[in-house]
Amino acid sequence: MAKTPLRPAPEPLEANDVAIVTGGTILWFVLFLVQLPFYGWFDDHGHAWWVWTCLAGAGLGLIGLWYVRRRRDAIRRHERSGNGPGNGNGKGPGSGPGAGHDGGQESGPDSGRSGQDPATRG
């Protein structure tokens, strides 16, 4: 059987990470609040850890919310500074292997590239 030719990987999808993490954090905290009045029953049946798991999920969600907000803000700053995704600088989404572009610069034997770092080129 003939092998199927390999195709480049698709670009990663960007989701609204802040909304997703916020929703999950709220859900964990609501579950904690719903279970809290029944703590005695949970404790009597050996399930007190359910209550504390929900509180831990809410706490970790707050850490995750802090992280994704910083990430989102850093991506926005990066794009505003002119270093947006896919600009050929090797940073950001769309600049990895299989991206299908080279940042708008010519490539090939006649491109004039010497293989040196542009910062050290004379």
UniProtKB/TrEMBL annotation:
Membrane-crossing ranges are 20-42, 48-68
Q: For the region Disordered, what residue ranges are annotated? A: 77-122
InterPro entries, alphabetically?
Answer: DUF2530 (IPR019681)
**Chain intervals with Gly residues compositional bias:** 83-106
Record keywords: Membrane, Transmembrane, Transmembrane helix
Pfam families, A to Z: DUF2530 (PF10745)
Q: What is this protein called?
A: DUF2530 domain-containing protein
Q: Which species is listed as the source?
A: Wenjunlia tyrosinilytica
